[in-house]
Amino acid sequence: MRVTLVEGDITAQQVDVIVNAANSSLLGGGGVDGAIHRKGGPAVLAECRALRASRYGRGLPTGQAVATTAGNLPARWVVHTVGPVHSAQEDRSALLRDCYANSLRVADELGAATIAFPLISAGVYRWPVEDAVRQALTVLRAADPAHLTEARLVLFGAPTYAVAQQVRAG
After folding, report:
1. What is the distance between the alpha carbons of residues 87 and 119, in angstroms, rounded to a whole number?
2. Per the CB 3.0–4.6 Å rule, which of 21, 34, 39, 81 could disulfide with 65?
3. pTM to 2 decimals?
4. Residues with catalytic function
5. Is-contact 57 49, C-beta < 8 A?
6. Neighbour order of strands in the sheet with 17-22
Protein backbone atom coordinates (compact mmCIF):
# COMPACT_ATOMS: atom_id res chain seq x y z
CA MET A 1 0.00 0.00 0.00
CA ARG A 2 1.34 3.40 -0.99
CA VAL A 3 1.30 6.03 1.77
CA THR A 4 1.11 9.68 0.71
CA LEU A 5 0.99 12.99 2.54
CA VAL A 6 -1.46 15.57 1.25
CA GLU A 7 -2.07 19.12 2.42
CA GLY A 8 -5.74 19.88 2.20
CA ASP A 9 -9.30 19.32 3.28
CA ILE A 10 -10.27 15.75 4.22
CA THR A 11 -13.83 16.36 2.98
CA ALA A 12 -12.57 17.07 -0.55
CA GLN A 13 -10.61 13.82 -0.98
CA GLN A 14 -11.87 11.64 -3.83
CA VAL A 15 -11.27 8.21 -2.32
CA ASP A 16 -13.28 5.14 -1.43
CA VAL A 17 -13.09 5.83 2.32
CA ILE A 18 -12.76 9.06 4.28
CA VAL A 19 -11.85 8.48 7.92
CA ASN A 20 -13.63 10.63 10.47
CA ALA A 21 -11.88 11.59 13.69
CA ALA A 22 -15.19 11.22 15.49
CA ASN A 23 -16.25 11.74 19.05
CA SER A 24 -17.72 8.71 20.80
CA SER A 25 -21.31 9.90 20.34
CA LEU A 26 -20.97 9.49 16.53
CA LEU A 27 -23.40 12.41 16.23
CA GLY A 28 -21.05 15.09 14.96
CA GLY A 29 -19.02 17.70 16.73
CA GLY A 30 -16.29 20.19 15.94
CA GLY A 31 -13.20 20.02 13.77
CA VAL A 32 -12.95 17.14 11.31
CA ASP A 33 -16.04 15.45 12.77
CA GLY A 34 -18.23 18.52 12.26
CA ALA A 35 -16.89 19.13 8.75
CA ILE A 36 -17.58 15.54 7.69
CA HIS A 37 -21.10 15.60 9.10
CA ARG A 38 -21.86 18.98 7.48
CA LYS A 39 -20.58 18.00 4.04
CA GLY A 40 -21.80 14.38 4.23
CA GLY A 41 -25.30 15.55 5.06
CA PRO A 42 -28.25 13.85 6.73
CA ALA A 43 -27.50 10.34 5.43
CA VAL A 44 -24.29 10.14 7.50
CA LEU A 45 -26.05 11.34 10.65
CA ALA A 46 -28.95 8.94 10.08
CA GLU A 47 -26.62 5.93 9.88
CA CYS A 48 -24.70 7.13 12.94
CA ARG A 49 -27.98 7.42 14.87
CA ALA A 50 -28.88 3.88 13.81
CA LEU A 51 -25.50 2.63 15.07
CA ARG A 52 -26.11 4.37 18.40
CA ALA A 53 -29.57 2.79 18.61
CA SER A 54 -28.22 -0.70 17.93
CA ARG A 55 -24.57 -1.68 18.54
CA TYR A 56 -23.13 1.45 20.17
CA GLY A 57 -25.68 2.65 22.70
CA ARG A 58 -22.90 3.94 24.96
CA GLY A 59 -20.94 5.35 22.04
CA LEU A 60 -18.04 4.08 19.95
CA PRO A 61 -15.09 3.09 22.17
CA THR A 62 -11.76 4.86 21.70
CA GLY A 63 -9.59 3.13 19.10
CA GLN A 64 -12.46 1.27 17.45
CA ALA A 65 -13.84 1.96 13.96
CA VAL A 66 -17.18 1.60 12.19
CA ALA A 67 -18.38 2.44 8.68
CA THR A 68 -21.33 4.42 7.35
CA THR A 69 -22.32 5.83 4.01
CA ALA A 70 -20.42 8.93 2.89
CA GLY A 71 -23.60 10.76 1.93
CA ASN A 72 -22.67 13.84 -0.11
CA LEU A 73 -18.90 13.41 0.35
CA PRO A 74 -16.76 12.42 -2.68
CA ALA A 75 -16.27 8.93 -1.22
CA ARG A 76 -18.27 5.71 -0.87
CA TRP A 77 -17.93 5.33 2.89
CA VAL A 78 -16.94 7.15 6.04
CA VAL A 79 -15.08 5.12 8.63
CA HIS A 80 -15.56 6.73 12.03
CA THR A 81 -12.91 6.25 14.71
CA VAL A 82 -12.51 7.82 18.13
CA GLY A 83 -9.02 9.00 18.94
CA PRO A 84 -7.65 9.28 22.46
CA VAL A 85 -7.24 12.59 24.25
CA HIS A 86 -3.53 13.22 24.76
CA SER A 87 -2.27 12.82 28.31
CA ALA A 88 1.13 13.72 29.72
CA GLN A 89 0.53 11.27 32.58
CA GLU A 90 -0.55 8.20 30.60
CA ASP A 91 0.80 6.73 27.35
CA ARG A 92 -2.21 6.36 25.06
CA SER A 93 -0.17 5.81 21.89
CA ALA A 94 -1.49 2.25 21.42
CA LEU A 95 -5.06 3.59 21.31
CA LEU A 96 -4.05 6.13 18.67
CA ARG A 97 -2.40 3.43 16.58
CA ASP A 98 -5.54 1.29 17.01
CA CYS A 99 -7.56 4.06 15.33
CA TYR A 100 -5.47 3.71 12.18
CA ALA A 101 -5.25 -0.09 12.27
CA ASN A 102 -8.96 -0.62 12.89
CA SER A 103 -9.93 1.93 10.25
CA LEU A 104 -7.70 0.14 7.73
CA ARG A 105 -9.27 -3.20 8.68
CA VAL A 106 -12.84 -1.89 8.27
CA ALA A 107 -11.99 -0.23 4.93
CA ASP A 108 -10.29 -3.37 3.67
CA GLU A 109 -13.30 -5.50 4.69
CA LEU A 110 -15.48 -3.14 2.63
CA GLY A 111 -13.23 -3.80 -0.40
CA ALA A 112 -11.97 -0.20 -0.55
CA ALA A 113 -8.87 0.56 -2.61
CA THR A 114 -8.19 4.09 -1.38
CA ILE A 115 -8.48 5.72 2.04
CA ALA A 116 -7.85 9.21 3.41
CA PHE A 117 -7.06 9.86 7.07
CA PRO A 118 -7.02 13.11 8.99
CA LEU A 119 -4.34 13.49 11.63
CA ILE A 120 -6.34 11.78 14.39
CA SER A 121 -6.28 13.36 17.88
CA ALA A 122 -4.03 16.26 16.81
CA GLY A 123 -6.79 18.88 17.04
CA VAL A 124 -8.98 19.43 20.10
CA TYR A 125 -7.60 16.20 21.65
CA ARG A 126 -4.22 18.01 21.84
CA TRP A 127 -1.93 15.22 20.58
CA PRO A 128 1.43 16.78 19.61
CA VAL A 129 1.52 16.98 15.80
CA GLU A 130 4.98 15.46 15.36
CA ASP A 131 4.12 12.40 17.44
CA ALA A 132 0.65 12.09 15.89
CA VAL A 133 2.30 11.89 12.44
CA ARG A 134 4.85 9.37 13.72
CA GLN A 135 2.11 7.14 15.18
CA ALA A 136 0.06 7.31 11.96
CA LEU A 137 3.02 6.51 9.70
CA THR A 138 4.10 3.62 11.93
CA VAL A 139 0.76 1.88 11.35
CA LEU A 140 0.26 2.87 7.71
CA ARG A 141 3.77 1.79 6.64
CA ALA A 142 3.43 -1.60 8.36
CA ALA A 143 -0.03 -2.41 6.99
CA ASP A 144 -0.48 -5.10 4.38
CA PRO A 145 -4.17 -4.98 3.44
CA ALA A 146 -5.78 -7.22 0.84
CA HIS A 147 -7.57 -4.48 -1.12
CA LEU A 148 -6.22 -1.08 -0.13
CA THR A 149 -3.60 0.29 -2.52
CA GLU A 150 -3.32 3.89 -1.27
CA ALA A 151 -3.56 5.56 2.13
CA ARG A 152 -3.45 9.35 2.29
CA LEU A 153 -2.64 11.25 5.42
CA VAL A 154 -4.42 14.56 4.86
CA LEU A 155 -2.85 17.42 6.79
CA PHE A 156 -4.82 20.60 7.35
CA GLY A 157 -2.64 23.67 6.84
CA ALA A 158 0.89 24.29 5.63
CA PRO A 159 2.53 24.18 9.09
CA THR A 160 1.09 20.73 9.86
CA TYR A 161 2.02 19.47 6.39
CA ALA A 162 5.60 20.73 6.87
CA VAL A 163 5.91 18.88 10.18
CA ALA A 164 4.58 15.71 8.54
CA GLN A 165 7.13 15.97 5.74
CA GLN A 166 9.94 16.34 8.29
CA VAL A 167 8.75 13.31 10.26
CA ARG A 168 8.44 11.22 7.07
CA ALA A 169 11.93 12.20 5.94
CA GLY A 170 13.49 11.67 9.37
Report:
1. 17
2. 81
3. 0.97
4. 33
5. no
6. 2-7, 150-155, 114-117, 17-22, 77-82, 65-69
Query: How many other CB atoms sit within 10 Å of the CB of residue 61?
Result: 11
**Residue 14 burial by CB count (10 A; 0-12/13-18/19+): exposed, middle or buried?**
exposed
Q: Which helix (H) or strand (E) holds 58?
A: none
What's the domain range around 130? Answer: 2-169
The rounded distance, in Å, linking the Cα atoms of 41 and 70 is 9
Asked if residue 16 lies in contact with residue 76, where contact means CB atoms within 8 angstroms, the answer is yes
**Residue 7: enclosing H or E segment and its boundaries?**
strand 2-7
Residue 84's CATH number: 3.40.220.10
Closest CA to 10 of 41, 32, 38: 32
Question: Which among 137, 77, 83, 136 is positioned nearest to 107, based on CA atoms?
Answer: 77
CA–CA dist 48, 168 (Å, integer):
34
User: What is the tens place of the pLDDT at every residue in 94-111?
Assistant: 999 999 999 999 999 999
